[in-house]
Amino acid sequence: MINPISDLIDSVLAATRMDAVDALRAFFVFASCTILSVSLSQSLRSRFVPYGARATSTNSQPNPNPSLSKSSGGSPVTRPLDCLAALKVPHGYFTQFYIALVLSSLFWAVQLLSRGAAFQAVTTRIRPERLQDVMSLNQILLCWALMLVQGIRRLVECLALSKPSSSQMWFGHWLVGIAFYVAVSVAIWIEGAGTLLAHEYTLDHIKITNVPSLRTFLCLPLFLFASGLQHDCHYYLFSLKKYTVPAHPLFSRVVCPHYTAECVIYLSLALLAAPPGEWVNKTLLSALAFVAINLGVTAGTSRKWYAQKFGEESVRGKWNMIPVVY
Fold first, then answer.
1. Looking at residue 96, what DSSP letter applies?
2. Measured by CB atoms within 10 angstroms of the end CB, which terminus of the chain is less buried, N or C?
3. What does pTM read for this prediction?
């Protein structure tokens, strides 16, 4: 029977002419470079980067986004950009990111246990040498479970801690977000494909009997701690009656501490998923690079928005996202 999902996966990987692991890493790196390139151009940044409240001009001048200007039709160069920037979706579509992550995680759990067609489509595109030094089964199970927990928590937060809003985001943000969470649900296990191919696993193999390694002992609390901090930030921001300068201690030295926590979450996963002899899982490290660059650009936009709306004093002495670094 034809499996449209496995056929699609095989077609995409075949089109890249790359090893599946390299293709996944390349996607994260390419997306990171694209976001960074857009952020470096004022013309592109003003059109495509801000979203939600950050897209609203707070000064007395006209909105700097040319797509909202009615005074002229724009130049032949900017007109297509204006049309592209006008393609927006509701900001509430953020919820779909975590729906995609949860569903993808569950889909791959079934595929990995059953050695389904989609799993076979990915593994047949991995070079044999890549199937040697790989993640253990315990690592795969732990990291998959933590990624699922992350997706469920963020989905619940989006549903429970969101207020009705008419704000929007560029549709490109939405497309890249969906693609990222679908890709990261594969990145969490792909460097353990050799382990999964070596034996047939069932639910009976899911046992927590081994003593945690030092890496797990250190990095699992890091994941849980960062998740707790992020939830605390999200709950606090939700509790604010209106947009104002956050007074929560976590915001005292960092403009966007919830972004900091997100980076720590992915860092802990990259460390937990490191194959034998490696310090870090390189595929998840490339995903972390995407997260850091994407949120770093947004944190910079948030800083400018706070400075415009509440004055430069509101952000003076604060780091955007990573203390001492940025």
1. H
2. N
3. 0.89
